[in-house]
């Protein structure tokens, strides 16, 4: 089954959400992005952000976690319905990454994905390259991040 049979181009699909806790922010930052505004709530009050906020890489990694969980659930649903879901392969990359506003401790980011287009790969019969708009919005409906990604699918 083709992705384009499942989802319309331009249709945003909700893939999940994540609430960023102070402990989670510090844990991620201590391992991957140890800047003071991600590590120390008191010091962060005196930073450009004015409070403890998640690394942009943390907010992106939670988008990926949400997408993987969503696709696992979708694969199970489609299989139960007797359909053969596409096998998603690797992503050859992403572009246009934007961190549009800080993600503060206590914020819940809802993630989504929208298919922008696709093209069959002449060099790999059965494989399609999809271009996706990926995003996250906070609990107030304000955009927090966005990027474009590509993913290979065997259909």
UniProtKB/TrEMBL annotation:
CDD domains: YdeM. Pfam families: MaoC_dehydratas. Gene3D superfamilies: Hotdog Thioesterase. Residues 17-119 form the MaoC-like domain. It comes from the Bacteria. InterPro entries: HotDog_dom_sf, MaoC-like_dom. This is Acyl dehydratase. It comes from Rhizobium multihospitium. The lineage of its organism: Bacteria, Pseudomonadati, Pseudomonadota, Alphaproteobacteria, Hyphomicrobiales.
């Amino acid at each position: 089954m083709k992705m384009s049979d499942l989802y319309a181009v331009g249709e945003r699909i909700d893939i999940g959400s994540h609430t960023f806790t102070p402990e989670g922010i510090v844990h991620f930052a201590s391992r991957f992005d140890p800047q003071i505004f991600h590590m120390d709530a008191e010091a962060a009050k005196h930073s450009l952000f004015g409070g403890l906020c998640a690394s942009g890489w943390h907010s992106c990694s939670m988008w990926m976690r949400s997408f993987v969980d969503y696709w696992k659930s979708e694969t199970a649903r489609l299989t139960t319905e007797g359909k053969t879901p596409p096998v998603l392969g690797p992503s050859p990359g992403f572009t246009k990454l934007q961190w549009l506003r800080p993600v503060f401790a206590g914020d819940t980011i809802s993630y989504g994905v929208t298919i922008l287009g696709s093209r069959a790969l002449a060099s790999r019969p059965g494989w399609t390259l999809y271009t996706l708009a990926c995003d996250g919005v906070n609990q107030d409906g304000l955009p927090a991040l966005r990027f474009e990604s590509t993913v290979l699918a065997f259909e």
